[in-house]
Specification:
single chain; 7 helices; seven-stranded parallel β-sheet; alpha/beta; 249 residues
Length: 249
Amino acid sequence: MGSGVRIDLRGKQALVTGGARGLGASISRRLAGAGASVLVADVRKDLARELCEELAQAGGGEARFVELDVRDAEAVADVFRELEEDGQAVDILVNNAAVDVSKPIEHLTAEEVTRVVTTNLLGPMYLCLETYRRMVSRGGGHIVNILSTAANRTWTEAGPYSAGKSGLRAFTHTLFKEAQRDCTGIGITGIIAGGMETPFILERFPDADVSMLQSPDIVADTVLYALSVPAGSAVSELVVVPRKEPSWP
């Protein structure tokens, strides 16, 4: 499906976490199709490299794999240090990587809670810390944090996931306010995405009714829209959910 959003990202470099499959892959394709050079950051080496080859053959912007576990703050800092040493900048950051453990709270382990919250909240914060200060020094850039309807309300078996996404939403709002103060050339956008037909849902819920889900390409188009808004305006938050989304509002 082609994107309906038109934006020229030639000369821009984007980093997409969890970029190898699902929503991350859709976002990577859209950014590359708009001319951006894409850093596909993921722990899934084979899938990420396959996607980079696909993007290269499609004739969009350049794409290359960056092995990155967002839970590792030192690894995140190393990636940005290496990019800086190579004279490269991240103009667009999309914090997309996320995991979930769907269990009642009484059956959760400390390790499971830590993995979900570290991936979904601390990881994006680590990426923002490294990216934001560099964007301030350059005078511009855009950070997009992928949120969830769980950032606004919750349901059973969603404790750690909802806590992480709610925290990321609050952090995103704070970052937006600080960007207004620190550098008006920086865009900060949180995208609340409803259920999508991706492995993130279908691997955990193989019997899910796909008619209740939306294509990840729709959410990827929403990312492009956030990036396309003229400098005089700001898109702090967008909501895109299936029409039959049961968890909104």
